[in-house]
Amino acid sequence: MVQNVEQHAINTVRVLAADVVRGANSGHPGAPMGCAPMAHVLFGKEMTFNPKNPKFINRDRFVLSNGHGCALHYIYLHLLGYDVSMEDLKQFRQVGSKTPGHPEAHDTPGIEVTTGPLGQGISNAVGLAAAEAQLAATYNRPGFELFNNYTYTILGDGCLQEGVSAEAASLAGHWKLGKLIALYDDNEITIDGSTEVSFTEDVLKRFESYGWHTLSVADGDNDVEGIAAAVAAAKAVTDKPTIIKVKTTIGYGSLLQGEEKCHGAPLTVDDIKQVKEKFGFNPEESYAVPKEVYEFYGARAAAGAAAEVEWNALLEKYVQQFPTEGAELKRRLAGQLPEGWEAALPRFTPADKAVATRKLSEGVLTALADKVPELLGGSADLTGSNLTRWKQAVDFQHPSTGLGEYSGRYFRYGVREHAMFAIMNGLAAYGVNIVPYAGTFLNFLTYGWGATRLSALTHLRVIYVMTHDSIGLGEDGPTHQPIEVLALTRATPNILTFRPADGNETSGTYLVALSDASRPSVVALSRQNLPQLEGSSVEAVAKGAYVLQDAADAKVAFIATGSEVSLAVDAAKLLAEQGVPARVVSMPCSELFDEQSVEYRKSVLPAGLPVVSVEALGTFGWEKYSHAQVGMTSFGASGPAGQLYKKFGITAEAAAAKAQAVIAHYAKAGYVPELGVEF
Amino acid sequence: MVQNVEQHAINTVRVLAADVVRGANSGHPGAPMGCAPMAHVLFGKEMTFNPKNPKFINRDRFVLSNGHGCALHYIYLHLLGYDVSMEDLKQFRQVGSKTPGHPEAHDTPGIEVTTGPLGQGISNAVGLAAAEAQLAATYNRPGFELFNNYTYTILGDGCLQEGVSAEAASLAGHWKLGKLIALYDDNEITIDGSTEVSFTEDVLKRFESYGWHTLSVADGDNDVEGIAAAVAAAKAVTDKPTIIKVKTTIGYGSLLQGEEKCHGAPLTVDDIKQVKEKFGFNPEESYAVPKEVYEFYGARAAAGAAAEVEWNALLEKYVQQFPTEGAELKRRLAGQLPEGWEAALPRFTPADKAVATRKLSEGVLTALADKVPELLGGSADLTGSNLTRWKQAVDFQHPSTGLGEYSGRYFRYGVREHAMFAIMNGLAAYGVNIVPYAGTFLNFLTYGWGATRLSALTHLRVIYVMTHDSIGLGEDGPTHQPIEVLALTRATPNILTFRPADGNETSGTYLVALSDASRPSVVALSRQNLPQLEGSSVEAVAKGAYVLQDAADAKVAFIATGSEVSLAVDAAKLLAEQGVPARVVSMPCSELFDEQSVEYRKSVLPAGLPVVSVEALGTFGWEKYSHAQVGMTSFGASGPAGQLYKKFGITAEAAAAKAQAVIAHYAKAGYVPELGVEF
Known about the structure:
The structure is a homodimer.
Chain A: H1 4-24, H2 30-46, E1 61-64, H3 70-80, H4 86-90, H5 120-139, E2 151-155, H6 157-161, H7 163-175, E3 180-186, E4 189-190, E5 193-194, H8 203-209, E6 213-217, H9 224-236, E7 242-247, H10 269-278, H11 291-321, H12 323-333, E8 355-356, H13 357-369, E9 375-379, H14 383-386, E10 410-412, H15 417-430, E11 435-441, H16 449-457, E12 463-467, H17 485-490, E13 496-498, H18 503-515, E14 521-524, E15 529-530, E16 546-549, E17 556-560, H19 565-577, E18 582-586, H20 590-594, H21 598-604, E19 611-618, E20 628-632, H22 641-647, H23 652-669
Parallel strand pairs in A: 1-2, 2-3, 3-7, 6-7, 9-10, 9-11, 11-12, 12-14, 13-14, 17-18, 17-19, 19-20
Antiparallel strand pairs in A: 4-5, 8-15, 16-18
Helix pairs in contact in A: 1-2, 1-3, 1-10, 1-11, 2-3, 2-9, 5-7, 5-15, 7-15, 11-12, 13-18, 15-16, 19-23
């Protein structure tokens, strides 16, 4: 039998969840009340963590994939002694609180990853578990189990319906991530009512098909021992991830229990009173936590703190015994890239041959592979097209496959863009300075935008290597040619959009992307060869835009990105022949340009100078930096790249003609609109 | 044994595929050569279709979900007598051809849906099969099986790895779509090599878990009778979709057969010669089709034409016997909406109460439900939040569930946004004037953008009912608050982005969205209540933007959308108090505004008038229509909506102050930059 204090602790959580959601007059009481027993098993019995140092590196990870139930997690953070006070709980869903409507990793101590958008959490958990496996295989030595944490996740029907979780679960099975344990809150309720209306598949059978170990607990409302036994059984199977189907009652204790009505709205005051009475609490008291409950969970915290002390001692011994690995690990734990890594970045002169930026990216990654062991690469089954793999790379694979090792650093994600991005978020969130990068075609960035958006919101250094970045990809046609994708990335806060023009800018792109540990980067790369440009610079990329080539008394400027910078150079030459001096500005990253001083920005795009932008994607948004635009206003087409540029009027001739028109127009108007005025 | 002509026909297709890809010097020979036998069974034996009328409404549908193998489909279209000539095959992947690099439904007769982005085709096929089920249940009568076609799809490993296909397959199983038959080209090869590197799940077991009927064919390279028998067995099971795993050899016949090298690049000239010799063709001849092969497939075409004649006669009898249904069906087949449907659209005056546009949308849908039977609604498990269901709606469900009927018009998609969008594409592509619409939160549009993009590219009338369209959703926080999403939709060709401000504009939005049969619409709707505005108009929505409220001698204009239009009205009042007359422009759809005459656009935003935009999403892109912007420049936050508007400076006061600053700045500058100059 469950000890009384444990049952009381679980009921405390249920009652407190009802209070917290009621206090906000907004939120989701149902999942916390239903999931309290399984959360108790994890936080109160199984997991190791240190509330006083939420970043203790070998802690067990916990992800609440059904993030809308976050009152549950916040309550546990509070009870366990994390820096989440009762006052914080009372500020649930209020502006500026540590307890927002969905868990945000950047803002709340103890939250590993940002969840809420369904399916992301379980997919992040796959990444967290893969990170543990990779680090354990890389750094553990006999007697030195530095990395051996478990990754737990609670997820609901919603997460299981999302495609991203299906992709990630298939990979987790393939990778045999035995330390990943998922608890499926099977309450048979979604917002539209019974799962019978839309979700009647056999979930455990599906997970078996992925190669998971599957278990069930029939009474998740009460059978704490059964849940604990299932978790123990999960741990005993070391070469398969485990999913435990835990049958629960949503809103357990409420008059509405088992109904969708208690999913996403506070319980009534009267209902909360009867819940309290039912569970032996004073119905007139709110936000009450019995002393023995604090004490019970407090003991868990103390055990966790001790575990960290022990781990730190082990690390010191490790550093002595394995000085090379130890030093590397300590560096990584400090969040530092290796000293002098930048020196490995290739540099080019205009005499060097024309190369596609995807190929130049391969050169950078190859140059960095040995120097920066925290780089973990991959591709969504386009390795040979994205050129994301360095020659000596070892694949991340379970050793039994004979196809790689867990210490491998190249991930074969399969055709699963959304999971790839979400798994990269998990890899980055693990810590130890992991820098995940992976490739697909730029157009398929939007297959996984749900995860990319969370890279940005959560400040994760994830590098999206997105090749085939325009109509320049040619024959694959409009289904593969991005038009709108860079507008999307540029319109999104806290993410950098790079479109390097040549070798130096490609190196500069990686220089910034790796150095900036607080945001993700999207790197758009060409399929086609591009010349090495006169005036291009590795260092200037950090400024976002710079004068690549200038002309005395310039009458117009071209501002271009990536594959169209050389086209702009050609257009300037045409104009020069026509007696019109023109400046060429390369803009590898508009967001970084926006962050420069007014003086710098004005030095690049001075008042009075007409500007024409050139980019072989949609023109949307370019009005900010230019008076006229050369670009796409329709979807692309299937055909050889050169012919497509002509068909869509993206040529040096068209750009020069547009520049002449702009000059003439504003000469007549008597003014040139100043760009970048700030109000 | 297979008759000789059939084997010869299959080999003809293989050889021709090698020639076609070689001719383009680009493309994918492997899948066509491997899939030729199964395609032969479908096109040469099983399917009914009329090449002379590719739109014959009761034709069997075929979707090549692994769209990169489209040479296969184009070759069959040619052999069967569709308007795809040998010359068209020679123009494979060339600009302006009927044979682009991936199948485009809008451009090639006989292509049902646009595929290539993996996972879309199978998901469209679920929509096509659902459409058949819905129409059959709605219109068929004893003796009048007007709708009874099958939907076939060929798909590969890539499609099966994508989450969208997992979502769609789960729904197909739930819906028991017995007339959906998928042939899985199990060639064990993806671009990265063997499927062993990333795709080791048990696919058939997974589909069993979804409730599918599963079958296998061991030798898909040669066992045509086995494939045919499997298809017959699939047809015999009427309450489950079927997946047939067909083991094939990629590039069958090539020296590279079974290797990834023949996946995505032409075979060498020498290899093609040996393929031809192996299959008994003249190695020196290219693009050769034996007469008996043309004759064999020609007979199929003749049978299909006869089937259409028979069907047309049946329809005429039906019209006589069931005049009401018959007239409705004929109207729908003609692509006409019901006469006078627009009269049902609600209209409002400023005296009417404040209502959220999501609620106003519910009012429109409720008003139209009876009038427009081709409206097929749904939601991704947010029915009560999106307000997408009219009260008397019947759910689309298999009758055995007791939860609805196949004639039901409301789809419970579950938490599966991507599949929902792809299934809507399939519903719309079926024809019979089906207008699918469905809801989720605006922020989760990007979970399914891979499908939405194809709505636009393929000119499908699909209506995206996207509620909770800004920080105005409040407490759910930044994980749910869209910032970048409308920049994405506006940057995309051939899709309309609506953000109505009140009741009249919501009605006007649906007026345009339903009337425009050649493109999709994204309708962004508020969670919060909005006042009915003085000056708002149902009809003006078609112009994209219009002067909602004017002031004599206006010194500035506000341009706003949706929930911020009333805020702009308030800002104009503040300015009036400060002695500054201001115009208020409502812009429910910027894309429609761009399509108006210069005169009209200048009448709304005249030269010389400073403009301030107000929209509670990211400001990216608004430079096109305004000199200064009020909006979001970061992610949102969790808290009550009113507090968030203040926190992020989106208030009437802030808008008025910005207007004053803009007026002052340009007074000093001596000019006001003209907006919308075209070069």
